[in-house]
Amino acid sequence: MTSYFDRSYYLKGIRDGLPFIFVVAPFGLLFGVVATEAGLSIFETMSFTVLVIAGAAQFTALQLMAENAPTVIVIISALAVNLRMAMYSASLTPHIGGLPFWHRVIAAYFLVDQNYALSSVKYEQEPDMTLPQKFSYMMGAITPVAPNWYLATFVGALIGKTIPPGLALDFAVPICFLAMIGPMLRTGAHVAAALVAVTLSLVFAFLPYNLGLMVAGIAGMITGAQVELWTERRRAS
TM segments (predicted)? Predict the structure, then answer.
């Protein structure tokens, strides 16, 4: 039976994923606090975080639920925020698509921003990595992240309003995404997509239920794809 575990690359993944603890912990604490303040029980909060394991989508859905948004809007918005996971999956398919079914299921469940960012960079840096090495590295990268996300959410749900507002736990959200996105803006298409998305998210901030973010995200993806096409045409001409 083929082994899809490589200890050395698993440990490399853990080492590279460790720094994310410093942003995942306050991120999870914040979600636990916000969820219980919104009226969810500890069981509901933990079920939410274990089943979804996607911070941005969880916060989006929770905020809309607190605003009594229509259920359809809540679902569509959460799915739109998590649409990036489909792109992550497509990006990783050439690397780990050959895994057995249950390995792919595990990889899909634990696919989050942090281990995607680390894995995609690692696969580019070491194109000769074997399938077991790639899978092991990806699982290693999520090992410091997922358990701490669960634990921090649980602690946040337990202590709730006892956390002083001065701690400003919400700082972890933008820092986490800046840390991941910054190093990935390597081409003109990436930069153009980011600029359009940021600009339009500000322009359409007045739209209800955070619909402006959906508009900005779609426009950013279209812009990035178009710039990529222009670049390829210029190289071919």
Answer: 20-40, 47-66, 72-89, 137-160, 167-185, 191-211
